């Protein structure tokens, strides 16, 4: 039995999904604006800032696939609540961390529980709503989750400036949000049993695949962050990581045939054209988005002299535009399909990033940064709901948790890799040297990635793919 979006239960279910996932998205962007203060308090320099972001993205990106599968097996509401509670407890550990190493470990724990929370928050909507309500609910989820993401720098900046160790307080605000999300989920979302069989749960999960993915990604990303210190050893470790990731793909292909245990990433999903294209677009565009926004937030504080709250407020145009337009765009995708949204959106984002590359010390916010942010925001609003809808376009409801997990993993892994690689590619050292000169190059690289995403969408989607599966 499905929920009606206009009913009280439907609104509470949507609110639970948005608050839960929004908590994770809010936290990830709060950390970006708080990173300079964290580095000042705990040390670690620019590399420490990268680790605080990438430690979280590493476990989230690698394990979100397991989280989606667990939602299908054990019931989406149950796993959603477990992830929400665990994320809140890990947030407390972050807020109390005495060293940069302890903080990175706590952030990795946050990523583990976010891997349960994020995919099931979307899968709840895909399974509990039908027809036009599903498209509207996904659009609202994408937009409002994007609002949480965009609010992160502003909220985080306010807390950083208001308290001597404001970054610690920024982690603790997750506690009331988690309580609200759990209450809403328990009151509105049916507790479905999931598809678990009588066999042991471990036999139904691809734990070896999860291990290969996590270690492989860690060996690719970690040495790239620490390349200045590791020297020639960097590429040996990166090569080892690539081999492990290749082993992961081979394992998934074999388990896709034998089925014991089922693969973490069913490669059969990639035979669905819309799913494959949506994930390619997600990889290049979200990689560009993650690296570009990370560097903008750091750049305006360290180079342009913005306070933390001013750096956060600089992104408010993105918040406003996502809040006003995302749900409407989500509804239009239900009728027109994702192709032209995902062609136009990344192109507009590329223009915005090119404009961002021109900002510098002494520039007026209203004549340089604001116009660039507005252009970027209009492009982003054409991407967030359509790319999520496209990823689930032809996926059956019983695979929605797994498919959502794959799409979330692609987005997080893209950000993980881009944050590690793009600063070095632009000439920004682990110590932070070269930030002023490398910023422009980094933004232009990000703009180029968005343009590639637009080409993939234009030539990848078929015209007949005009509406989500109901």
Write up this protein.
The chain has 470 residues and is mainly α. It folds into 2 domains: 8-188 and 264-460, Growth Hormone, Chain: A, CATH 1.20.1250.20; 206-263. It is 79% helix and 0% strand. It contains 18 helices and no strands. Helix 3 (76-95) runs antiparallel to helix 4 (100-128), helix 5 (131-162) packs antiparallel against helix 6 and helix 5 crosses helix 16. 62% of the residues are buried. The model is unreliable at 465-470 (pLDDT under 50).
Topology summary:
Layout: H1 8-42, H2 45-74, H3 76-95, H4 100-128, H5 131-162, H6 166-172, H7 174-188, H8 207-225, H9 227-230, H10 233-258, H11 273-302, H12 308-313, H13 316-336, H14 339-356, H15 365-381, H16 384-391, H17 400-425, H18 435-460
Helix pairs in contact: 1-2, 1-4, 1-5, 1-6, 1-7, 1-11, 2-3, 2-4, 2-8, 2-17, 3-4, 3-6, 3-7, 4-5, 4-17, 5-6, 5-13, 5-16, 8-10, 8-17, 11-14, 11-16, 11-17, 11-18, 13-15, 13-16, 14-15, 14-18
